[in-house]
Amino acid sequence: MNTALVTGATSGLGREIALDLARRGWRLVLPVRTATRAHELVVATEALRAPTPSVVECDLSDHAAVRQMCRTVIGEGPLDLVVNNAAVGGGVDPTLRETNTAAVELRMAVNAITPHLIAQELSGALTSTGRIVQVGSMGQLPLDLDDLNYERDYEGIQAYCRSKVALVMSAIELAQGGIPVNVVHPAREMPTRMVVEGGFPIASTLDDGTLAVLRVALDSELSGVRGAYFHRFDRAEPHGQALDAHVRGRVVAWIEDRATLHHV
Q1: Which domains, and CATH codes, for the chain?
Q2: Per-residue pLDDT, 94
Q3: Strands 229-231, 234-236: pairing kind
């Protein structure tokens, strides 16, 4: 039986990815803030006669909790797939700068640091053909290396786009260390809570995004590909800053340092 961990699976794109895998007979591992949030998805998988999901409570903005979640998951057995789909968008009020309990800007904390940490922690639990897929975005803006925690002139959409460049940088660095990880932009504005809250017009369906993510996750032609960025089904160039090894090194060092911070 194949096993996949999917973050952000209680709604939107993550839910569709999880249900597609369940239809294929996969067992799901679902990190969620509270177990009650996964109830509807668990019922839906049961209706598909899929294996019962494993629900693990975890606040994905809390990196100590993320490490504990990973230890719990590792104890349950090997993984064939990890899909880091959960993300924080620009917010209802894009002028509001939010942080996690360790004072790390929330979009960087959830959209870049948490996927990096999960990939590191769970890579050893992957089967020989296992893969990690980071759900990225074509919306990419360069990071200010002197303000990676985005404390100056804050704007939520910009913070989101910066975090997605950091995610690509992370994947390239992790892949160079031997971790089978890639990043995919699934589709233009899908009907997710993030897009609706941001007031963007819907341009794609959840199916559009699901197909793109699962292609990177499951296509045998991509079994040896690591550290790549995909624009839907095609390998593409990410923002140029992500291709600068010196910049990547600085950003990933910052990511790994912030991942060790605790409550302030």
Answers
A1: 3-258 (3.40.50.720)
A2: 92
A3: antiparallel
Residue among 210, 205, 211 at smallest CA distance from 189: 205
pTM over 0.85: yes
Q: In the block, which residue shows the tokens 């959830």?
A: 110
- What angle, rounded to 10 degrees, do the helices at 206-218 and 12-23 form? 60
- DSSP helix/strand/coil, 83: strand
153 CB-near residues (< 8 Å, 6+ apart): none
d(CA 261, CA 102): 6
Helix, coil or strand: residue 28: strand
Give pLDDT < 50 ranges for the chain: none
- DSSP H helices, the chain, are 12-23, 39-47, 63-75, 106-108, 114-122, 156-176, 193-198, 206-218, 245-258
How far is 175 from 225, CA to CA, in rounded Å? Answer: 9
Looking at residue 235, what is its pLDDT? Answer: 98
